[in-house]
Amino acid sequence: MSNTAIYTYTKPFELENGKKLRKIEIAYQTYGRLNAKKDNVIWACHALTANSDVLDWWKGLFGNNYLFNPDEHFIICANVLGSNYGTTNPLSVNPVTGQPYYLAFPEFTIRDLVAAHRLLAAHLQIQDIKVLIGGSLGGQQALEWSISDNKKIENLIIMATNAVHSPWGIAFNESQRMAITADRSFYAQQPDGGLKGLKAARSIALLSYRTYEAYSTTQLESVNDKTCSFRASSYQNYQGEKLCKRFNAYSYWYLTKAMDSHNVGRGRTSIADALALVKANTLVIGIENDVLFPLSEQEFLAKHIPDASFQSIKSAYGHDGFLIETNTLTNIIGNFLKESTNKKIIKLHKTA
Predict the structure, then answer these.
(1) Do 234 and 226 meet the contact criterion of CB atoms below 8 Å apart?
(2) Which reaction(s) are listed as its catalytic activity (predicted)?
(3) Domain-by-domain residue ranges, the chain?
């Protein structure tokens, strides 16, 4: 059983920077049913331009006959604040002006995305989360949630992510925003503003999501006499146009800024001390040739999160491997959850 809904939080929603949204709407989807013990909740946090339909974009890991299936689990995925898939975002109507926010929308952080998730969890009367999982921006959310509300998360699975967004990652995002703002229509206060810039931004992003090897395999020319109209050129254009058909430049601009804001040490003693607050059984997964989130970032997480497990995987797709290598991930995550269950049983026996 699946359910698509929008939760409206009617009180002012205060952001980390002190600014407020008069109200927020959160689009979300649930699959399956909450069991009698209320201990079968799987909460998936999505990445930059994904949506709440986790069975679609993480097929192979989520869905019927897969590891996280609706027959066994109660699966929840919420669209993040600022995204244009039903949650309050820059194209939403500003109640003060009666017009879309556009660039009047307040900037927000990863912690604000998590705060919205927590409001939804309270609305759904979710007390405990058996598995909180996410990759990339979704991993940043899951990690922050496991620090800020560390008693509710039993198992944390984060992949291709980090404790603080790197100067390298910020530089990639700033380059994308430069492309967007170079498109003068971005300032035109129109829903389709900045789309040419967004197309270029997506092309930049793809270079950080994939690898030299991936392009050599999928975009290599079969003839030697070409001087133009290369497959790689067509691919970049196609992917840029594809995103423009389903996303908007304003949400993209704000969400990349939110990713840049990610630093679990902000307002806390240190990054290491913040990671030490995680109480969940944690699995950290890295991708060996991830250009955007190098393996060293996941190794750092595993080192500083208490008793965390660490696994690295190989993928020709680089960073995007966390969405594609679902067979490998199923084996790694499945074994981790079995071990976690066994540890829980042993602990109960010892306290009995």
Answers:
(1) no
(2) L-homoserine + acetyl-CoA = O-acetyl-L-homoserine + CoA
(3) 2-165+265-351, 169-259
CATH superfamily of 2-165+265-351: Alpha/Beta hydrolase fold, catalytic domain (3.40.50.1820)
For 211, list phi and psi in degrees, rounded to 5. Answer: -135, 165
CA angle 219, 183, 233 (to 5 degrees): 10
Binding residues for substrate: 202, 320
Q: Which CATH architecture is the domain 169-259 placed in?
A: Orthogonal Bundle (1.10)
* Helix 195-209 and helix 231-244, axial crossing angle in degrees, nearest 10: 120
Per the annotation, binding residues are 202, 320
From the candidates 290, 304, 315, 340, give the one annotated as an active-site residue: 290
Per annotation, catalytic residue among 183, 262, 319, 340: 319
**Angle at the Cα of 250 (from 246 to 255), degrees rounded to 5?**
90
Q: Is 229 a catalytic residue?
A: no
Residue 262 a catalytic site member: no
Packing angle of the helix pair 167-182, 249-260 (nearest 10 deg): 160
Catalytic residue among 136, 203, 251, 315: 136
What is residue 341's predicted lDDT score, i.e. its pLDDT?
80
List, for residues 237-293, the tens digit of each pLDDT value.
999 999 999 999 999 999 999 999 999 999 999 999 999 999 999 999 999 999 999
For residue 332, which of 298, 293, 296 has the smallest C-alpha distance?
Answer: 298
